[in-house]
Every structure is written in C-alpha cells, then in structure tokens.
Amino acid sequence: MMTINTVGNLVLLSEKNHPITIDLAYAGTNNFTGKSIYKNDLCYLHIDAMECLLKAIEILKPLNLRLKIWDAFRPLAAQAILFKHMPNPDYVGDPESGLCPHCRGVAIDVTITDRFGRELEMGTIFDDFRPLAHHGNDLISEEAQRNRLMLAGVMNVAGFKPLETEWWHYQLPNVSSYPMIQKDKMPEGIV
Predict the structure, then answer these.
(1) Is 18 annotated as a binding residue?
(2) Terminal-to-terminal C-alpha distance of the chain
(3) Taking the domains of the chain in order of start, what are their residue ranges?
(4) Which of 48, 107, 118, 126 could form a disulfide with 101 if both were Cys (CB 3.0 to 4.6 A apart)?
(5) Selection from 36, 34, 42 nearest residue 15 by Cα
(6) Is 134 part of any known ligand binding site?
(7) Which residues are annotated as active site (predicted)?
(8) CA-CA distance, 16 to 34, in Å (whole number)?
(9) Do 21 and 69 meet the contact criterion of CB atoms below 8 Å apart?
(10) What is residue 59's three-state secondary structure?
C-alpha cells in the first residue's frame, strides 16, 4: 500500500512511493545559480497536480519510460533568489507579480528517461534560458523535437499545459485559482 505524506494541499513525492526519478536541481549546486537554494531534497506538489502527474506516469509506463523531476513546489523565498539571478519573467517568474505557479505547488519541471534512467535527448539542458529551449524550436535535432512533442503530449493529456519558453515546465491550466502557499502552510525546513 502506498503511503501519502501531505502538508496542507501539498503531497510529498518520493521515488519509494512513486515510479519517478527525483533530482531536485535547487537542492544542490548543479543549477544556474551555482548554489543550493533548498535546505533539503524533499519534493512536494499540490494534490490536484499530483493527480495529473499520476496520469502522466501511467501513460509512459507501457513505453518503459519514466518522468524525472527537477522541481515542483517552490517557496516564495526560493523564487526571489532565482529571480535575482535571472530577472527575466519569460524564464523565471517575478515573485512580486504573484503569478508564480511553482509557489502555488501546481507547476513541475520534468523530462523523460528510459528504463535505465537515461534522459531522452531534448535539445538543451534544463534551465537553458535561450530560444533554443522554447517549444516549437526547429533548430534542435529531429530526435529532440520528437521527444519534446512526446513529453508535451503526455503532459497535456494528463492535464498540464506548457510554458512556451521552457520545454521542461508544465503547470495546471487554472493557476490563478490556486493560492500562493504561505510560509505557515509550507513543509518545515524546505528553505
């Protein structure tokens, strides 16, 4: 039986309880800031987004493919740090705007891996802030284009919509209907 850990509307994702790979980019230094932003590598997602994620997992299962998660819920304090390093709202939401889907727990940064954990070719690395990372960019290889389309199709059918400037970012379509998750409703020790 699967154990589900929740804090408010956030569900804890784990490789033990879900057939996914978690490699939170901001829990370590291998990210565009070069610094660890999160205090731990616990990965949370809003319960509504979790339902969609489970659908995406099921769609990929017969293909022997899995999702790899780089980020999900992101506290507002972490968003401010990221925006300070990349103050371009096309790629990192301005925390002052109140529009950040990660801070509501309804966005997820993902890719697809094969059954051995190898990432499929997507044309750029995660957090590549160039037009090459935009959906529909035809300057990447045909294989990368196919893989991006597969990821987009899976996530769309599961209930997510893409962010046009980042092939890895997916969010629920009605972001503004979810409140920002305040510090008192947040898991302890995340930032």
Answers:
(1) no
(2) 30
(3) 6-185
(4) 107
(5) 42
(6) no
(7) 166 (proton donor/acceptor)
(8) 28
(9) yes
(10) helix
